[in-house]
Amino acid sequence: MAWEYINREAVIERARELDAHQFAGRRIGRLHGVPVGIKDIIDTADSPTACGSPILRDRIPENSARIVQLLEADGAVIMGKTVTTEFAFMSPSKTRNPHNLEYSPGGSSAGSAAAIAAGHVPLAIGSQTNGSVIRPASFCGIFGLKPSAGIIPRVGVLKTSDLLDQIGAFANTIDDLALICDVLADYDARDPQSFAMPRPDFLRAINNSNRDQKAVAWIMFDYMDELDTDTLAGFEQIKSALSSNVQQIDARQSTASLLAAHKTIHETQLFQNLGSYVKTDRKHLSAPVLEALERASSITRAEYNTAIKVRDEAIEFFQNLFLEFDAIITPAALGEAPLLSEQTTGNPVCCTIWSLVGVPCITLPVLSGANGLPIGVQLVGKYADDEHLIETSKWFLDILG
Amino acid sequence: MAWEYINREAVIERARELDAHQFAGRRIGRLHGVPVGIKDIIDTADSPTACGSPILRDRIPENSARIVQLLEADGAVIMGKTVTTEFAFMSPSKTRNPHNLEYSPGGSSAGSAAAIAAGHVPLAIGSQTNGSVIRPASFCGIFGLKPSAGIIPRVGVLKTSDLLDQIGAFANTIDDLALICDVLADYDARDPQSFAMPRPDFLRAINNSNRDQKAVAWIMFDYMDELDTDTLAGFEQIKSALSSNVQQIDARQSTASLLAAHKTIHETQLFQNLGSYVKTDRKHLSAPVLEALERASSITRAEYNTAIKVRDEAIEFFQNLFLEFDAIITPAALGEAPLLSEQTTGNPVCCTIWSLVGVPCITLPVLSGANGLPIGVQLVGKYADDEHLIETSKWFLDILG
User: Fold this and answer.
1) Residue ranges making up the domain that contains A12
2) pLDDT of residue B208
3) Cβ count within 10 A of residue B229
4) Spatial distance between the Cα atoms of A362 and B399, rounded to a whole number of angstroms
5) Number of independent structural domains in chain B
6) CB–CB of A198 and B29 under 8 A?
7) Fewer CB within 10 Å: N-end or C-end of chain A?
8) Which chain B residue shows the shortest CA-CA distance from A202?
C-alpha cells in the first residue's frame, strides 16, 4: 500500500547496469545500488506520475525531475513511485501505518514514510508544503529532514505553492538522511527558490566532532494546548534532560497570524496552480481540495499581501532568534498517528510555521505514545545553515543516549 | 581581445555576495571566488551570448547553461564571455595569441585559451566539435581537457552537432583542469548524450599515487606526413624518453574514411541546427560557414548513414585498443600557431578522430617550435575512463620531469 507504481524489469535492468559500471572499474556514486522511493508528485521519465489524482491517471512525464536525475547520477536505483495524497493535499491515501495497520501513516508523503518504516527501501523522497515530511515521519517512527527552502531544486515536481513547497527525505538514520540530502542539494535556475551559492555539506556536519554545548529554544504557541498528554509528558522529560540548555519563549500571541498567513498563501497559490481543474475536472476533485480551491477564489489581493508581510516579518524574527539559539525543539505532531477511521492524515499544525518561513527541520523518532505508536521530536534550525541543525541534532541524540 | 563581454558591476557584486556567504560561516564551494571565463556560445542569464555571429548580436538568454549554474553553485565568479569564432566554426576571430600577437590563438575557443595564457583568469570553458579545445590550448601553451562525450551536460550551449559537440576546459595546470571538470561533470537528461551514471572523479585521479608503468600507443595516420619538422623532432625525443612504454600502430589506411565521416556528420548536423540562417540571414554568414552549410544540403541520407557506420566501427576499434593501452600519445596540432596573416585558426586534423569517437583528450604544453611558440602533446584515453587518462598524464609528466 506504500507504492503506486513499480516497474520490476526496469529496476532489475538498472541494477545490472550499475553492476556492469562497477565491474568496469568506473567510479561508483554515493548511492551506488541503493533503492530509493519517489513520492508520486515527482516526475520520473517513462513511468506514471499521477500526483494522487485520477485527473492525471495516464500522465507519463518525458523527463525526470532534477532530483531524480541527481539520484541516478549518483548511482541510486529508483525503486518506484510512493503513494501521495491527492495533489499532496489533505485527503487520506490508501497507505497504512506499518506500526499498526489501523492507523494513518500521515500525509501527504504517506507512501515514502511508510516504505521506510516497513523496510522496503532505506531512502525515500517526499515534499512538504505544510507538514508533509515531518508529520508522516513522526507517525511512522522514522527520521525525516526538510532542508531549507531553495537548497533542493523542485524542477519536475508538482507545483502547489511556489513559496511553500519544499523537498524532504526519509530514512532510518540521521546519517542516511545527510547522505541523500548531499546528493539532492543542487542549484537549478529553473526553480525560482534555488540560489547560486554552495550548498551545506550535510555529511560533514554528521562527522563534525565539535559537540559544544548548545542552546535550544522551546517556543510556546497557542496550538501547544492541543498536544496529547503523552506528547506533553515526553517533552517534559526531554526538557529536564536538556536542563539549562533549553529556554522557554512565549510566542502565543503570533500563533494565529502565522497560521493564517500560511493558509492564505497556500490556498492562493494552490488555486493559481490547480484552480483550472475546478472547471475542467470538478468531479475528480475530492471535497477537501475542492473546498480549498473555492475558498481561495475569494481571497483578496490585500489579504494575500498581508499574509506575505506576516511571512516576511516571521522570517526576520526567526533569523534573529537563531543568533541566540542553535535550534528550536518542538513536537513534530500533536501526538501519535490518528486512526484510519478518523479519515484524516493528522494535524500538520506543528510544522506549518516552519514551512511558512522555509527554515530547515528534522524529526527524530525518540518518543512513543499511549497506543505504542511513535512520536517525533522536531528540531528546527536557521535558514540555510542546515549543517548546524544536523550538528545540533547529533548533540541532542547524544544527550538522550 | 580575449573577451566579448564583461559586466564589471555584476562581477564585483557576485564577489561581494561570496564574501558575505563565507563570513556568515556557510560552506564555501570548490571554486569559491575563482573567476572563470565562458566561451560565448554558452548561455549566461541576463548577459549577451551572441555565439560570435552578428545574427545573434542582441541575444540575451533568460537562463544560464547548466554548466554555468554548476560553476556558480560551487562558488565560481563568472568573469565574462570569451571570444568565439562565428558559431564555433573555422573563421578567425579578433583574438590574438598572447605568446606573440602576430599569431593566431587557434579556434574556436579562441578567447578562453588566450585568457588563460594571458593570465586574465585561472580557468575557462570551451567546446570542441572538431579541434576547438585541444588546438587553441596547444597554440596558447596551456593545458586543455575535453572529457568523454556525455560527461559534461550541454544544456544551454549552442548546438552545432549533437553527436560531436563536447565541452572542455582550459587552465595553467592539470590539477586545476581536474578541479573544474569535477564541478562540470553532471547528468542532465535534457542532453541526449548525458548518461545517468556516476561521473569520473578527476581530482581523485590527480591524487592517485599509483604510478605503475603505463603502455601508450603512437598511432600513424596519413596526416602525420604534414607535421612540422619541429613537432616531429619533439615527438621523437618524447618517444625515446618513453622507450619501451610506447608502441607504434599503423592506422594510415583508415585515416581518410574517419576524417570524411567526421566532416559528413559535422556538416549534416550543422545544417540541421543552423541551416535556416542560409535563407534568413545569408549576408551575415561568413564564407566558410555558408560554404559548409551549402555543401551539407547536398549530403545524401546514404552518405550520412555510411558516416555513422564508420563512426560506430571506430568507437569499437578504439574501445578494444584501450584494452591494451593506457593512452594514445599524439600531437595536439600539426605545429605551432599560424600567423594571423594566414587567415586561419589552424588545422584541427590532429583532434578530428577523437572528437568523432567522443573519447577524452588532454593537451599538455611540453614542446615548443622554431618560432618559440608552444606545441602541445595530446593524450587520448578510453571512453568514460577519464580518471585513467588523468593518471596516465600525470605519469607522463613525471617521466618528462
Assistant:
1) 3-400
2) 85
3) 10
4) 53
5) 1
6) yes
7) C
8) B27
